[in-house]
Design brief:
48% helix
Length: 417
């Protein structure tokens, strides 16, 4: 049953702070659900988390100071999501299924869930009566208030509204043509694909899960957002160069660099976790890539392993707050604001290593999938202040609503003599 699977996924996420996409995929792969039920479970899981603050605002008058167990709370939240956002499902069916799920553990819980949902149906949606516009936006789009305030300070209220509303739209299914195996024109003969909006080798897929297609399985395409596809061409790796990829997982940019180099030269790629390196390797094998050497290591210590000025070009796709990919990973919205306290020093250390290892006249790209200026423009300003022989060649920022893509920042720099 779709709702039972959705509830188990939400409980694991809620109790263990698990990765939502990985947990959902595990449950779906181990279930006997039909394709339609898998789609419904996916919509309920992502929709509930995407709209969590708004749903809690709707639920609050009915529970007030009551102690509600996580299971019952999640049944209520996911049921409210269906009642408010999935208008093709009859209300009585949503409530009946919610009561069955609650009664599985406790007869009283079933009565409690039934009473609250029927009260909600009688009263209808609660208006957002906050006078403060930022608080209203926070509730309506389910972005924590600290985040709305930060984005508003950096971009202004109108742009922040566009970002927050766009984060709650379904993500597009973007992929990159693997030019080592096929050209874009050949792939576009299949009507399920159409041209992308932003990147040269981008295609959009409109017929389900790209990973289920023969093109993905044969390595002709790989799943990669269009904004992400701009990073490797910006670095512009040349054949026979020695390239360093400092934080390579999940490997999409590594693979793109290799394709641009036509499997010549050498890319040395690092990641901190062995299981992620295995996933990168599996991806490279599928795509037919042979010029990448993979290592498990903390990239903040790489200058201990190589002589100064070893690499022709360096890609530093830095760990970041992920505020550009909240449409794809809605759980990022609920990370604590203190995450910046660890990320910014980490980004600084990685940049120090990149500077040490980059040849004179060498080029590097610093990129993130966040739109937080502290991790982007201000980080690069700090870097340039520290190393005045570095200069910016090109800087790009993509806000997510502009091309219906992930939000991204990338900066190409050159090291002078």
């Amino acid at each position: 049953m779709a709702r039972a699977v959705a509830l188990e996924v939400l409980l694991k996420y809620w109790n263990e702070q698990s990765y939502l996409n990985i947990t959902l995929n595990e449950y779906l792969q181990n279930s006997d659900l039909s394709r339609n039920d898998k789609d419904l479970a996916t919509r309920i899981v992502y929709g509930t988390i995407q709209n969590k603050i708004y749903l809690e605002y709707q639920l609050e008058p009915y529970i007030k100071d009551k102690k509600v167990k996580n299971r019952e709370r999640l049944i209520l939240l996911m049921s409210l999501y269906q009642l408010i956002f999935l208008d093709k499902i009859p209300s009585y069916a949503i409530i009946d299924e919610a009561v069955k799920l609650a009664k599985n553990k406790n007869l009283y819980a079933g009565k409690f869930v039934n009473a609250i949902l029927r009260n909600y149906l009688r009263n209808g949606k609660r208006n957002i009566d906050e006078a403060d516009e930022l608080k209203r936006l926070s509730i309506e789009t389910s972005h924590p208030l600290w985040m709305v305030k930060m984005l508003s300070k950096q971009y202004g209220l109108e742009v922040t509204k566009k970002i927050c509303f766009h984060d709650n739209m379904p993500p597009v299914r973007a992929a990159r043509v693997n030019t080592l195996k096929i050209n874009k024109e050949e792939l576009l003969k299949d009507s399920a694909f159409k041209k992308g909006n932003l990147a040269l080798d981008a295609v959009l897929y409109e017929a389900g899960n790209i990973a289920d297609t023969k093109y993905f399985k044969s390595g002709s395409v790989t799943i990669q957002d269009e904004s992400s596809q701009l990073v490797a061409p910006l670095l512009d790796p040349q054949k026979n160069e020695l390239i360093l990829d400092m934080c390579c997982a999940p490997g999409s940019k590594t693979a793109h660099l290799a394709a641009l180099m036509e499997n010549s030269g050498k890319i040395i790629a690092y990641d901190l976790f062995e299981h992620k390196i295995k996933l990168v390797n599996d991806n490279l094998v599928r795509l037919g890539i042979t010029n990448v050497e993979l290592h498990v290591k903390d990239a903040t210590t790489l200058k201990d392993d190589y002589p100064k000025e070893t690499f022709d070009r360096i890609l530093l796709d830095a760990p970041c707050s992920g505020l550009g990919v909240m449409k794809r990973k809605p759980e990022i919205k609920y990370h604590d604001s203190t995450v910046m306290d660890t990320l910014i020093p980490l980004q600084t250390k990685l940049l120090d290593n990149a500077y040490y290892l980059l040849k004179n006249n060498g080029k590097m790209v610093y990129s993130t999938c966040t739109i937080n200026k502290k991790e982007n423009e201000l980080m690069i300003k700090q870097f340039l202040d520290k190393y005045p022989d570095m200069r910016i060649i090109e800087e790009k920022k993509i806000l997510p609503y502009v091309y219906d893509s992930d939000g991204f920042y990338m900066c190409k720099l050159e090291k002078g003599k």
